[in-house]
Amino acid sequence: MTAGSDVPLIALRGVRRAFTRGSVTTEVLCGVDLIINRGEFVAIVGASGSGKSTLMNIIGLLDRPTSGSYRFDGREAGAFGRNEQARLRREVFGFIFQRYLLLPGVDACANAELPAVYAGIPAGTRRQRSTALLDRLGLADRLDHTPDQLSGGQQQRVSIARALMNGGAVILADEPTGALDSASGAAVMTLLGELADEGHTVILVTHDAQAARAARRVVEIRDGLVVSDSGETIPAVLERSGEQRPKRHAPGLFALTEALRSAFAALAGNPFRTALTLLGIVIGTAAVVAMLAIGEGTRRDVMARAAATGTDWIVVMPDNDNPTLPGGRLTLADAEALATLPNVKAVTPGRWTTVTLTAGSTSLRSEAFGTSTAYPETFQWGTRWGGFFTPADERAGAPVIVLGTAVAARLFPDEEDPSGRYVLANNIPFLVTGVLVPKGPDERGTDRDDRVVVPLLTAASRLIGSTDLGGIQLTVADTARLEETKQLVRETLRERHRMEDFFINDMAARIAAVAETQSAMAGLLAMIAGISLLVGGIGVMNIMLMNVTERTREIGIRIAVGASAADILRQFLLEALVLAGGGGIVGVALGLAIGVGASFVLGLSVVFQLTAIVLALVAAMSTGVLFGYMPARRAARLNPVEALARE
Ligand code: ADP
Ligand code: MG
Q1: What is the pLDDT of residues 350-362, one digit of tens each?
Q2: Is 583 within 8 Å of 282 (Cβ atoms)?
Q3: Whose CA is nearest to atom 7 of ligand 1?
Q4: Averaged over 360-387, what is the pLDDT?
Q5: How far apart, in whole angstroms, are the C-alpha atoms of residue 281 and residue 623?
Q6: How many other C-beta atoms lie within 10 A of the C-beta of residue 317?
Q7: Residue 586 in 3-state DSSP?
């Protein structure tokens, strides 16, 4: 704005404004011509309903005429973009309303500073200026009072400070004394007079004749038309000669802290409702965190098992579950055939059976493994006391037995080393050749010391009565050629059996099986998380829509003091983000708790990873932004005049 320019500041010509409600159209302004120059102090008077506020809203760029021309500082207002309108509201106009329209729950300083926030003025500078203004307006000792702690006159002075915050070259006061007692009203009128003396252009709407007298010029409106004007100004020029670009300011960087504060206020205002609607986000995030942690734990378990048992083995087992097969059989002859294959270092046949063991008066049931002398090397499991049975025992099917430590301890509680003693296995006397090294429980929690080992032939002839094998374990010399060897094993057995009545398993296959389970679990996780986040997103949208409805007046105030549509959109998006982020944080905590619970109660392996937690939070926050967008856009598109009229 150029002071002292030869064009009038405000020039309305033939301004009309009609409101259409359904099929009814009301003409409120019916062709207003009005020119106001810089530094004028004008009172607009007229009966209630004559269109004064409508005129003010048009002048202050809160509303647009239906037809006619409004030139501000020589430029056609209808051509201003939304951002330019917001900038002018923020930096040039200062609104003072009859009902003050301060933000509730925010102190005097913060209320006065609002236009400066949207102008991107640093907090320190803002505070200095608001303090100085409020001090000048006699509110030095009320800086940290919220509107409900201030009288009407004090609130109106805060709103005047707000109007002056960014300069307030044009003060638009719509019945500023209407709600005040006469003393406070007189004080406000004195203030407006002083501002006019200082060079502010003051436009005052009032139906109080005495108040109007304070103004230097009185314009009367009746039925949407100017019917009298005490100081008609006829300007020489109505248009600017050279188009002057408005000074561009950096877009008002909306303070993050303010958005955070109002988001927390929205959260805290109705904590139960908030908690309920955020449940979906909480569950979704928790599902992502917990399932990823369990999945990672399982993966590491498998890797650890692979590292512990090595990867240099192949297991062949009969397929007894396939109803189209006669029931698979694996024999010692099969094992011997496999032993001749290249790359096969050792072959360990085996067969499990349950036996009753008795020593003295103690009897117990145990799992007996019939196997070969290759057992200690194949399974890396030697004896602690005594020794393993010999190849001669094996060939002869001798009644010899190696005890697990737990079995030895129960059958021979008084002896450390029971080698050389006899036990009855299914009532047959067996010589104890040794006791296995203790191994403790396996990864599934079963006790591995609770078993006994006997020669395969002994198991077949004396305990089972069949030479069928439970499985054949092959140790390969070169792991790199494992697949090749596996293929050879398959071909050999298929040739011998004339069908595929067996399974071949190895660590790679086991890892693949776990990976498959995991991907199924990941699918389930994605579904749970997706559905929960969808429900949560709808919850966020619901909260934010209620928020926008409940805070319509606040939004109107923000737009009136110069917030752009982008500022409002950003604020509500940030609030949705904070809401969803809050739900996400609770969800992460819940997910961690579920993970810890799964680890302690169910004994699952759980590994928390920062990336998984970040991923879950990002998912929650993206949901917030996605579903908060519609309510935020609704807020940003509110009509400020209607929003301000909302109770
Ligand atoms: P004043 O401020 O002089 O009392 P207003 O400008 O507020 O008058 O309103 C003038 C007329 O326009 C009133 O009859 C009012 O009902 C009507 N009016 C104002 N705003 C709207 C609107 N948004 N929709 C419909 N009618 C409106
Ligand atoms: Mg009015």
Answers
A1: 999 999 999 989 9
A2: yes
A3: 53
A4: 90
A5: 8
A6: 17
A7: helix
Reduced 3-state DSSP string for 436-455: ECCCCECCCCCECCCEEEEE
**Domain locations in the chain?**
10-245, 263-304+513-645, 320-500
In the structure, which protein residues have their CB atom closer than 6 angstroms to any atom of ligand 1? 19, 21, 26, 28, 46, 48-54, 642
| pLDDT tier, 250 (very low <50, low <70, confident <90, very high otherwise) | very low
Closest CA to 93 of 9, 188, 176: 9
Query: For residue 606, what are its two tokens?
Result: 């759980």
Q: Are strands 502-506 and 471-476 parallel, antiparallel or unpaired?
A: unpaired
Sheet hosting strand 217-222, strand order edge to edge: 93-97, 170-174, 201-205, 41-45, 217-222, 225-229
When the candidates are 3.30.1120.10, 3.30.380.10, 3.40.50.300, 3.30.360.10, the CATH number that belongs to 10-245 is 3.40.50.300
Q: What is the pTM of this model?
A: 0.72
Query: Which atom of ligand 1 is found nearest the CA of 52?
Result: 3
Place 244 in a pLDDT band, splitting at 50, 70 and 90: very low
Selected residue with higher pLDDT from 526 and 532: 532
Query: Residue 607 corresponds to which tokens in the numbers above?
Result: 């590994």
Instruction: Give distance in angstroms: CA of 18 to centre of ligand 1.
Output: 9
**How high is the pLDDT of residue 618?**
93
Q: Is the pLDDT of residue 251 over 60?
A: no
CB 622 within 8 A of CB 615: no
Cα 93 to ligand 1 centre (Å): 21
Protein residue whose Cα sits closest to atom 27 of ligand 1: 19
* Ligand 1 atom 20 nearest Cα: 54
Taken as a whole, the chain contains a residue count of 647
